[in-house]
Amino acid sequence: MATSSHLNWLIIRNNNAFLLKKRDVNKPFSTEPNNLACVSSYRYSGIVHKKTLGVVPAADKKGFTAVLKKGKYAQRPAKNTVRVDFKAGPRRSLKKLKNLLIGAKYRKDLTQAALRRASAVLRSQKPLPTKGKKAELSKGKKPE
């Protein structure tokens, strides 16, 4: 028997395996998959909704992967997720993700959060800047 997502949220909101409670933090964090904001709230929950969206780094650490859950196959876990890779470069990949979500009318409320998460994933994959000549000069080395 299928229950509503609101009822499911009321059942699991205070006790589930993905809650991460900290001292002096009003809103507990969540480690569940497909939770874009990592916050324990009904809006971002990846467990209770039939349609969810997750953004994870790609397997080869170049680009990101959008994980979509199809509402049609909610009761069939083997068929209910679709993974779409984005590796065309940062700006183009973000534009493609936005077009995918807006064009398919897939959870409009999560579009901005998905773009922020994808941007953070891409930023984390950029190499750290190397130390240049100015850094060496400031450490006291003599120029040659």
UniProtKB/TrEMBL annotation:
Which molecular function term from Gene Ontology is one that the record holds?
structural constituent of ribosome
**Which segments show compositional bias classed as Basic and acidic residues?**
133-144
Q: Where is this region: Disordered?
A: 121-144
**Biological process (GO), any one:** translation
Q: Which domain of life is it from?
A: Eukaryota
Q: Which UniProt keywords apply?
A: Ribonucleoprotein, Ribosomal protein
- Asked if the Swiss-Prot or TrEMBL record annotates the protein with the keyword Transmembrane helix, the reply is no
Q: Which InterPro entries match?
A: Ribosomal_eL28, Ribosomal_eL28/Mak16
Domain Ribosomal eL28/Mak16 stretches: 7-124
Q: Which GO terms describe its cellular component?
A: ribonucleoprotein complex; ribosome
Question: Per the record, a Pfam family?
Answer: Ribosomal_L28e
Q: Which PANTHER family match?
A: 60S RIBOSOMAL PROTEIN L28 (PTHR10544)
In which family does this protein belong, per the annotation? Answer: Belongs to the eukaryotic ribosomal protein eL28 family.
Q: What is this protein called?
A: Large ribosomal subunit protein eL28
Give the source species.
Drosophila madeirensis (Fruit fly)
